[in-house]
Specification:
alpha+beta; globular; two-stranded antiparallel ribbon
Amino acid sequence: STNAETYLNLQNFKTELKTFQTGDSYKDVLEKSKSNAIEHNLSICHIDLKDVNEEKLGKRVDKVCKEMYQHTSCNGLFMVILAGKKAVNAAAGVTIVKPKFER
């Protein structure tokens, strides 16, 4: 089953959602996530990167984080969770996008 199907089977999770979108590729999911991040103060974006070559994984994660940060609403919460594997620890990061004031 896909990640989207897994989420849809979680009844309590579904009932609390304002919107639920999925895509056929990580690029589809990223585009939909960027749109939602602009419209909402908290967006959860699950991008499956398990098929990405380990040599390219760091660059792909950096690209996703940069694009999501740039599209997160002012005072919105931006969270990244990397699931990890049996041999690799998981990681998480959080930031709040604050307004930029010119002096």
